Amino acid sequence: MTTQPQDQLPAPTGAEAHDQAPDVEAAPVQGAPDRTPHDQGPHVTTADLIALLGERLHTEVVEHFVALTGASPAYVERQVVECLRYLYLVSRHRDRLSGLFLPVEQDIDEIWHYLILQTREYREFCEERLPGRFFIEHRSIGYEDYQQEPGREQAIEEALRWIPLYVREFGPFDECALPHWTIVRFLHDQLNMSLRDIAALQPAGAP
Length: 207
Prior knowledge:
- The protein is an all-alpha fold.
- Helix content is 53%, strand content 3%.
- Helix 1 crosses helix 3 and helix 2 crosses helix 3.
- The N terminus is likely disordered.
């Protein structure tokens, strides 16, 4: 499943992968520690994201999907974290990511939909807690349809726009993130890119 904010902005052309880590600016999140240019840790931690959502709603959504799917609490907690990371990226980098499909799995999309149904809490989360302060509307399509719409090359080009932002905000992808991000798993499994190589991808158009 891929998800897309409703805003539509034209996508830049050109995308290259380089060996050096991306140089993408990021602003602090409420409650997150300051980060120096030499700090290799994540700027926005899991605890930060849970605090933004709220402990009560976080516990509620985890318990709901554990009961619904039978998955372990640890696995569902990671699904929720990746959903929150998606929403944080879309909010923080609206100018760069509006109009893009960020390919996440169906389970992540369903968690997002569950959050939206918690109308008041979700609106407060988007408009008062996330850095962009705007309501993130929901849209999704199947990944097969996504592959047909932009094509593989464009999908990879678009990935080069958001993967460096993810790494900058949250640190490199790890093995536990792969089940939840379709294009990252494709780069790792089908193109044989290591997680370190994926973390070193440059933003599209970087020199």
